[in-house]
Design a protein that fits this description.
The structure holds two protein chains of two kinds.
Chain A (H helix, E strand, L loop, with lengths): L11 H16 L6 H23 L8 H13 L2 H8 L5 H14 L9 H8 L3 H7 L7 H11 L3 H9 L6 H4 L5 H16 L2 H10 L1 H13 L4 H16 L4 H7 L3 H11 L4 H16 L5 H9 L1 H9 L8 H15 L8
Chain B lengths: L24 E8 L3 E8 L5 E9 L8 H12 L10 E5 L2 E7 L4 E2 H8 L6 H20 L2 E2 L8 E3 L5 E3 L6 E2 L3 H6 L22 H4 L8 H16 L13 H8 L6 H4 L11 H10 L10 H4 L11 H8 L6 H15 L11 H9 L4 E5 L4 E6 L34 E2 L10 H8 L12 H11 L11 H30 L3 H5 L2 H43 L7
Antiparallel strand pairs in B: 1-2, 2-3, 3-5, 4-5, 6-8, 7-10, 8-9, 11-12, 12-13
Helix pairs in contact in B: 3-6, 6-9, 7-16, 14-15
The chains are: A mainly alpha, B alpha+beta.
Pfam families (chain B): Pkinase
Keywords (chain B): ATP-binding, Coiled coil, Nucleotide-binding, Transferase
Protein name (chain B): Protein kinase domain-containing protein
């Protein structure tokens, strides 16, 4: 692209303003003559490409922070972000990708050491609805998904998404038949559930019942291998996070949860087995095991001990061996006292 | 940059291929690797399209699926005539199916091995490289690195069209920040300071990925690919792959790269044009900044009268066995060697580990012979302190020096194994210099090269002789040690008395003397320390005498 823009010494703010005008044009219903429209759309794509070049630099030059700040300021001074996001379906593939990268980059731009994107999104939080629903559209999913993941870097935005009705839809998005889209949704879901610790802990304690009911039935007991595997891994990450300790204690006191995890332990997939172990060990290590949990563990004691005896991972892992030894000790020492 | 083909915005995501394995009729296997199989298949519901399906065993990958997510995402978002994109991808139980257009002529690598074991003609090479460069120019413009450019990842269709494939290890420069700052995920294995790719083709800065690398690493790999097309294989590739690095070194020691392939005569009666050599030379510059971009390379004189892809179809595909047949022939061999050289993925962890084991620490490109000589590092465990004399990372700012001397010992792989010993270090550095000194080994060039070896700026007139001598001695010692290690290994492995052949009597004596000298030095050191200690004790005793704090003496 070099040399293309050399003759036009426009400021970054100029580029933003011109992009905005073109976006407004593109949004209008296509009643004007087609040829003119094509021309304008081509110009819009060029402008978006230039925005990207300013923000990321190109092969010849690094981005200039002053230019980036100007661009960002102008971008959020008016409603350009919303316009751009709404117009993505009207762009060609290359411009869609450029737009995605522009939106992603803007989330991290600081103006006077302030993330103004965060303030903008807080005031325009409904944009998130558009982005999340993108997972339902095969053509938009990867673009909107990538933008969404960048936006939930802002804690307030993540909180909104977690508490919105959209949260339930993720359980379906994760299992969409298109692998690339399902994987993208899973990455976003994981980001939501792990990035902002206090927000996540707060969300889980308030929404414990429906969330884990869905998590268990739709993800951990899914017929889809990859869903189960990702879900059990993420569950381990969530429960082992110190900020979620209250949630963890609650989770490992449920006999239904234990049953699901024990089924995952019996899977023929080594990877799932290992991830399941990292959750199962929490049930075993719990020092205040409810009687029914103890009951199940005692009833399955010999089977569990046999399983763990041959339970090895390919790579040597001291922590894993130590955990295993402790789980075995716990189970071996169990007495079904309260049941008798 | 490449022509932008505007696609109508109305068309939805390409053709809609079914996301269900039962909708495909598998015709046969056309490739296999550590954790993936590639099938040729028919899709009756989409105009009976012939497709290639890469089926990846997900259970064999330990990591989370970010790598696959990115690969499939890349493949569905890239759109260029020279890039193999995916029709769709979906999971089938534990396997990930990536459905792609079927490229009926298979990989260029398989074309080479079945029809052109000694390399292709220059006009063919030009077309292939040009088409590949088109793809690279597009990729780099998008901020993507391919990171695994090689002939087996360049596919050809029956009409001669060429597509770059396999984004198993590709990366986007727009993503790493995000990934690295994401503390909860372990996806950092894909940051751009990681080692990825296939070793023969890997650029020096990728091997030594301390500082990260960019698009220019792909350009290096393209240069190696050019050699691969010209000679029939990348440097050293004719040697059978094996598990251990040490075994590989000992096997390769004393072999010139193309010796066995081209017979004993050194130039194999193959002549390459000046512009081709120049192109390869530009790609294989040790300094990534000096390598031209893909866009720039497309304007190189080598591509001036470049033919179209139909030329390839005419010249390469005649009498070529089908992809399936080629796979059957090669497949047996491949599986025996437990290696994956065909169109497959390397994104399995074990594969990546293996990749790491096959590092090559540097290359010496000999433009005249169009040869590239790799320099292998040894296992770090076998290193001796002798290397510490050499400059470490901090002094390697001068762009010329790409071969690292810290923690590594250099083995020169040379076609003339009888070459005098001392000339080796000179040759090692020779090609590394910013001002390449080729071929001639006059005293002066030797001197400047060697001075750069010990960290003295070769442009400065004065050379610190003492530093140089000590550097050289240490270098020689490390070479000797290396040599004796290799001999021991060969002895162990073959049970033969190869040692005598490789070590002359003088050298052995020299080694013994050197070792004794070191011992003597150590002895002296210890003696001195003991004396110091004695002195210290004496002082303490006399002190204790007066203060009567005898408890401190034992």
């Amino acid at each position: 692209m070099k040399g293309l823009f050399k003759s036009k010494p426009r400021t970054p703010a100029d580029v933003v303003r011109q992009t905005r005008d073109l976006l407004i044009y593109a949004q209008r219903s296509p009643d004007s003559r087609e040829s003119k429209r094509e021309e304008k759309m081509a110009e819009l794509c060029k402008n978006i490409r230039e925005l990207k070049c300013i923000l990321y630099g190109n092969s010849e030059s690094e981005p200039v922070s002053e230019a980036c700040a100007q661009l960002t300021q102008e971008f959020f001074r008016e409603d350009t972000l919303r316009l751009l996001i709404m117009c993505v379906p009207k762009l060609n593939l290359e411009a869609r990708k450029d737009a995605t990268q522009v939106v992603a980059n803007l989330q991290r731009q600081q103006v006077h050491s302030k993330l103004i994107a965060s303030d903008y999104l807080e005031a325009n939080i409904d944009i998130m609805d558009v982005l999340i629903q993108g997972y339902g559209d095969t053509d938009m999913a990867l673009h909107y998904g990538a933008m969404l993941r960048e936006c939930i870097r802002h804690q307030s935005v993540a909180r909104y998404v977690l508490e919105s009705q959209h949260m339930k839809k993720f359980f379906d998005y994760i299992q969409l038949p298109n692998f690339d889209i399902a994987a993208d949704a899973a990455a976003t879901f994981k980001e939501l559930m792990t990035r902002h610790k206090s927000t996540v802990a707060d969300f889980l304690s308030k929404n414990y019942d429906w969330f884990f009911a869905e998590y268990n039935s739709k993800l951990l007991e899914s017929s889809n291998y990859i869903t189960r595997r990702q879900a059990v891994k993420l569950l381990g990450d969530i429960l082992l996070d110190r900020s979620n300790s209250a949630v963890m204690t609650r989770y490992v006191s449920s006999r239904d949860n234990l049953r699901i995890l024990m089924n995952l332990l019996r899977e023929s997939s080594k990877s799932i087995q290992i991830e399941a172990f990292h959750v199962f060990k929490l049930f075993a290590a719990n020092q205040n095991k409810p009687a029914d949990i103890v009951g199940i563990l005692v009833a399955n004691r010999s089977k569990l001990l046999r399983l763990f005896a041959d339970f090895k991972i390919d790579k040597e892992d001291e922590q894993f061996e130590a955990d295993k030894a402790q789980v075995v000790r716990e189970i071996a020492a169990l007495e079904p006292k309260e049941l008798s | 940059m490449a022509v932008h083909h505007e696609e109508p915005t109305s068309t939805s995501r390409k053709l809609h291929f079914p996301l269900d394995s039962s909708a495909y009729q598998i015709l046969g296997e056309i490739g296999s690797g550590v954790s993936a199989v590639v099938y040729k298949a028919l899709c009756p519901s989409v105009n009976s399209a012939v497709v290639a399906i890469k089926s990846i065993d997900l259970d064999r990958s330990r990591s989370d699926f970010d790598a696959f997510r990115r690969e499939t995402k890349t493949m569905s978002l890239l759109s260029h005539p020279n890039i193999l994109s995916a029709h769709c991808s979906f999971t089938v139980d534990r396997r990930l199916w990536v459905v792609m257009p079927f490229m009926s002529a298979g990989s260029i690598q398989s074309v080479i091995s079945s029809s052109f074991p000694n390399g292709m003609s220059e006009p063919c090479i030009a077309v292939i490289l040009k088409e590949t460069l088109n793809a690279l120019s597009y990729l780099h413009d998008q901020g993507h690195l391919h990171r695994d450019i090689k002939a087996s990842n360049i596919l050809m269709d029956s009409d001669g069209s060429v597509k770059l494939a396999d984004f198993g290890v590709s990366a986007s420069v727009y993503e790493p920040n995000y990934l690295n700052s994401n503390s909860s995920s372990k996806t950092s294995s894909f940051r751009l300071t990681d080692v990825a790719g296939t070793p023969y083709w890997m650029a020096p800065e990728v091997v030594h990925s301390h500082n990260g690398y960019g698009c220019k690493a792909d350009i290096w790999s393209l240069g190696i690919t050019a050699l691969e097309l010209a000679h029939g294989g990348p440097p050293l590739s004719h040697l059978p792959p094996s598990k251990s690095l040490l075994l590989r070194i000992t096997k390769r020691f004393n072999f010139s790269d193309y010796e066995t392939r081209g017979g004993t005569d050194k130039n194999k009666s193959k002549k390459f044009s000046k512009s081709f050599k120049d192109l390869v030379g530009l790609c294989l510059d040790q300094d990534p900044n000096k390598r031209p971009s893909a866009e720039k390379l497309l304007k190189h004189s080598f591509f001036k009268n470049c033919k179209g892809v139909d030329f390839l179809a005419k010249n390469l595909l005649n009498g070529l066995p089908s992809v399936e047949e080629r796979f059957r022939v090669l497949g047996g061999v491949l599986s025996k060697n437990d290696e994956d050289e065909d169109e497959d993925d390397d994104d399995d962890e074990s594969a990546r580990a293996r990749v790491r084991n096959r590092r090559i620490s540097g290359w010496n490109f000999n433009e005249d012979g169009l040869d590239l000589h790799p320099v292998f590092p040894t296992e770090s465990g076998s290193d001796s302190g002798g290397n510490s004399v050499f400059p470490t990372e901090s002094s390697s700012e001068s762009v010329g020096k790409m071969v690292r001397f810290s923690g590594e010992t250099i083995i020169r792989l040379s076609s003339e194994s009888h070459e005098s010993f001392l000339s080796s270090p000179g040759r090692v550095v020779e090609e590394e210099g910013a001002h390449l000194v080729r071929g001639d080994e006059s005293g002066e060039s030797m001197e400047s090269n060697l001075s750069s070896l010990v960290g003295v700026d070769s442009n400065a007139g004065g050379v610190d002789r003492e530093a140089m001598v000590s550097g050289l001695t240490a270098f020689m010692r490390s070479l000797d040690e290396q040599r004796s290690n290799v001999v021991t290994l060969i002895g162990l492995l073959r049970g033969e008395e190869v040692g005598e052949v490789m070590l002359s009597r003088e050298e052995q004596m020299g080694q013994v003397i050197e070792r004794m000298r070191v011992e003597l030095e150590n002895e002296r050191e210890r003696n001195f320390q003991l004396e110091m200690e004695l002195e210290f004790l004496r002082i303490q005793i006399s002190g204790a005498y007066t203060t009567t704090s005898a408890g401190s003496i034992d």
